[in-house]
Write a structure and sequence with these properties.
The structure holds two protein chains of two kinds. Chain A is mostly helical. Chain A has twelve helices and no strands. Chain A is globular and about 70 Å long. Chain B is 74% helix and 1% strand. Chain B has 15 helices and two strands. Chain B is globular. The two termini of chain B are 35 Å apart. Classes of the chains: A mainly alpha, B mainly alpha. Chains A and B meet through α1, α3, α4, α5 and α6 of A and α1, α3, α5, α6 and α7 of B.
Chain lengths: 258, 311
C-alpha cells in the first residue's frame, strides 16, 4: 500500500514538473525548431532572446513594476497590519476581511473593472495604472505573510522601547520592523513574484506600450512560436525557482499551510 | 516616580497596557490616535479608489444601455443581463461550468492519495515535497501553458514518442480542445486542493485510527467512517476554491483550448477589448463575480472555509 502511494506521488511530481523540464530542455536545442537536444546543446536561442528588444524591454518593465508594486504594497500593508494587530482602530475583523477581499474577486472580473476605470481616468496603458492594479492584486498575499511575521513580535519589546524614551514611530521603525524583518522581506518577495507573473489583469489594462514580460510572452505565443519562447520561459522558471528558494528560507510558505 | 508615570504614559500610546486610561487625554492621547490613522488610511483609500470603486462603477455601467460613445447614462436597463440568456452565452457558461467541475473532481481524486502519503513523511521530506508542488503555482501561467503545448501538440513529445513506438498512426489531439484545457487547469490549480487536504491529514490524530482498528474496524471502515469524514471540510473548501479558479482562468484555456473552446473569461475579454461593448462586458464580469460569490458562501457553509485573520 505504502509503496503504491509513493509511486503515485512520484507520478504526480513528474506531472507537476514535466512541462517545466520540457521547456528547459527545449531551450538548449541547437535545431531551428522544437527538437529535443541530443548530445549537442546550444545557447543560440538565449542569444536570440537578447537580440530581441521586445523581450528585453518587457523584462525591465516587469522588473520596475514588480519592485514598485512590492515596495508600495509592503509599506502600506506593514502599517495597516500593525495597526490592526495592536487593535488601535475599531472594526479590526471587518478591515482585515476587506484587505483580503481582492483574493475573492476573479482576476478577469477585476481586469474588466480596472480596464473601464483606468480608461475613464486616462490611465489606460500607463505605468501608474499598472502599478495601482498590481498593488491590489498582491495585497492579500503580503497582508497574510506580514501578519504572520508581526504576530511573532512581542508587544512588550515595543513597550520597553517606549519606556526608554523612544516615540511610537521610532519604536516601530527601530524595534518592530527589525524584529519582523524576515517576514517583511518574505512579503516583499511574494509581492514581487506575484506581480512579476501576473498575466490576466495586466492583459486587460495594457496596450502595446506597456507590455510586461509575461504579457509579451503570451502575445508571442499566440502569434508565432519558436524556441526563443522556450529560452525566455526557461529564464522565467529559473527566476521563479530562485525566489521560491529564498521565500522558503525566509519561512514565507509557513503561512500557506494553515 | 516621575519616570514611572512617563513610562506608563508612553506605554499606553500603544494601546492596552497599564495606563491606557491615563493617556486618553493630553499629548499622548493625540499621538495615540493619530499614528494608527496615518498608518491605515492610505491603504484604505487605495482599496476604495482602486478596488471598490472600479467594481462598483462597472456594476453601474452594466445597468445602462450601450451606445458607440459609451453608456447612455440617462437610461437604466437589464438588457445587458438578458443578453446573457442567449443560447450562445448559455452554451459558453455550461461549457465553463462543465470543464471547471471536471477539473475539480479529477483534482480531488488525484490529490487525496498525495496528501495522505505526504502527511506520513518526516517534516524535512514534507518541506521539500511542498516546494515541489508549490513551484508550478509560482511559475508564470503563460510559461506553463507553453510547456504543455510542447508536450501535447500534434507534433509534441507525447505524440512523437507514441508514433516512434508504433502505438498510433495518426497523432492524438491532446490540445486545442477540451482535453488540453482540462490538463492545463489540473496542473495549474492542483495545489489548492492539495494544501488544505495535506494540512487536515497531517493534523489528523493517528490515535483515532488505532482506536478504530482496535475496536475492529476494517480498512474500508477506517476510511469511510474516520478519515474521510474528518478531512471532508478541507476537501470541500479546497475543491470549491479550485472550481472558482478554474471558472476564472484566462490564459491557460486561451493557449491550450484555442478558439474552439471559448470560456466565460474569453467572452469577457472579447466583449470588452475587441467588441468594445463595456456595458455588456461589465454584465459578463458581474455575472462571473456573482457565481464566484455564491461558491464562496457555499464553501463557508459546507467546508467551514475559515481564514486565519491578521489580528
Amino acid at each position: 500500500m505504502r509503496r503504491w502511494l509513493a509511486g503515485f506521488n512520484a507520478a504526480m511530481v513528474a506531472f507537476m514538473l514535466a512541462p517545466l523540464l520540457m521547456i528547459v530542455l527545449m531551450s538548449f536545442t541547437p535545431a531551428g525548431g522544437f527538437e529535443l537536444p541530443g548530445w549537442h546543446w546550444s545557447l543560440r536561442w538565449y542569444r536570440a532572446v537578447f537580440a530581441y528588444p521586445g523581450f528585453i524591454d518587457a523584462f525591465f518593465l516587469s522588473l520596475r513594476l514588480g519592485l514598485a508594486t512590492a515596495t508600495l504594497a509592503t509599506a502600506l500593508a506593514f502599517g495597516a497590519v500593525w495597526t490592526l494587530q495592536r487593535r488601535l482602530v475599531p472594526g479590526v475583523t471587518l478591515l482585515d476581511s476587506f484587505f483580503m477581499s481582492p483574493l475573492l474577486v476573479p482576476a478577469v472580473v477585476f481586469g474588466v473593472a480596472m480596464l473601464q476605470f483606468l480608461n475613464r481616468h486616462g490611465l489606460y496603458n500607463s505605468f501608474i495604472g499598472l502599478l495601482l492594479a498590481h498593488v491590489i492584486v498582491v495585497l492579500p498575499f503580503v497582508v497574510r505573510v506580514i501578519a504572520a511575521a508581526l504576530r511573532d513580535v512581542p508587544r512588550q519589546l515595543e513597550w520597553v522601547a517606549l519606556s526608554l524614551g523612544a516615540n511610537m514611530p521610532r519604536a516601530l521603525l527601530l524595534v518592530t520592523l527589525p524584529l519582523s524583518l524576515r517576514g517583511v522581506v518574505a512579503g516583499f518577495l511574494f509581492a514581487f513574484i506575484v506581480s512579476f507573473d501576473e498575466v490576466t489583469v495586466t492583459l486587460f489594462i495594457t496596450g502595446p506600450a506597456y507590455q510586461t514580460l509575461p504579457v509579451r510572452l503570451y502575445n508571442y505565443l499566440t502569434d508565432q512560436v519558436d524556441p526563443t519562447a522556450a529560452a525566455v520561459s526557461a529564464m522565467l522558471i529559473f527566476l521563479s525557482l530562485c525566489l521560491i528558494l529564498a521565500l522558503d528560507r525566509l519561512g514565507g510558505f509557513k503561512t500557506m499551510r494553515r | 516616580m516621575r519616570v514611572a508615570a512617563t513610562t506608563a504614559n508612553r506605554v499606553s500610546r500603544f494601546g492596552g497596557g497599564a495606563g491606557a486610561a491615563q493617556a486618553a487625554t493630553g499629548e499622548g492621547g493625540a499621538h495615540r490616535r493619530l499614528l494608527p490613522i496615518l498608518l491605515i488610511v492610505p491603504l484604505l483609500l487605495l482599496m476604495v479608489a482602486c478596488f471598490v470603486w472600479p467594481l462598483t462603477s462597472s456594476l453601474i455601467n452594466s445597468l445602462h444601455p450601450h451606445s458607440d460613445s459609451g453608456p447612455i447614462l440617462g437610461q437604466w436597463t437589464l438588457a445587458n443581463y438578458r443578453r446573457l440568456l442567449d443560447p450562445f452565452y448559455l452554451r459558453v457558461l455550461w461549457r465553463t461550468l462543465r470543464i471547471s467541475a471536471t477539473v475539480s473532481l479529477l483534482t480531488a481524486i488525484l490529490a487525496y492519495p498525495v496528501a495522505w502519503y505526504a502527511a506520513t513523511l518526516r517534516p524535512v521530506a514534507q518541506a521539500w515535497l511542498l516546494m515541489v508542488y508549490i513551484t508550478p503555482w509560482l511559475v508564470n501561467v503563460a510559461v506553463k501553458a507553453f510547456g504543455w503545448s510542447l508536450l501535447l501538440s500534434t507534433t509534441g513529445i507525447i505524440n512523437r514518442a507514441l508514433r516512434g513506438l508504433g502505438l498510433i498512426d495518426a497523432p492524438l489531439h491532446l490540445m486545442l480542445n477540451e482535453t488540453g484545457v482540462v490538463i492545463g487547469l489540473l496542473h495549474a490549480h492542483f495545489l489548492f486542493v492539495l494544501l488544505p487536504l495535506w494540512a487536515a491529514l497531517s493534523g489528523l490524530d493517528r490515535r483515532l485510527l488505532w482506536a478504530a482498528s482496535s475496536l475492529g474496524a476494517s480498512r474500508l471502515a477506517l476510511w469511510r467512517d474516520v478519515i474521510l469524514p474528518l478531512s471532508r471540510p478541507a476537501l470541500v473548501s479546497g475543491v470549491i476554491i479550485n472550481f472558482m479558479l478554474n471558472l476564472a482562468a484566462f490564459a491557460t484555456p486561451a493557449l491550450l483550448g484555442g478558439s474552439r473552446v471559448q470560456l466565460m473569461s474569453y467572452i469577457a475579454y472579447r466583449v470588452n477589448l475587441v467588441d468594445l461593448n463595456w456595458e455588456f462586458g461589465a454584465a459578463v464580469a458581474v455575472a462571473m463575480l456573482a457565481i464566484s460569490m455564491l461558491l464562496i458562501v457555499l464553501a463557508r457553509r459546507l467546508g467551514g472555509l475559515g481564514r486565519e485573520s491578521v489580528a
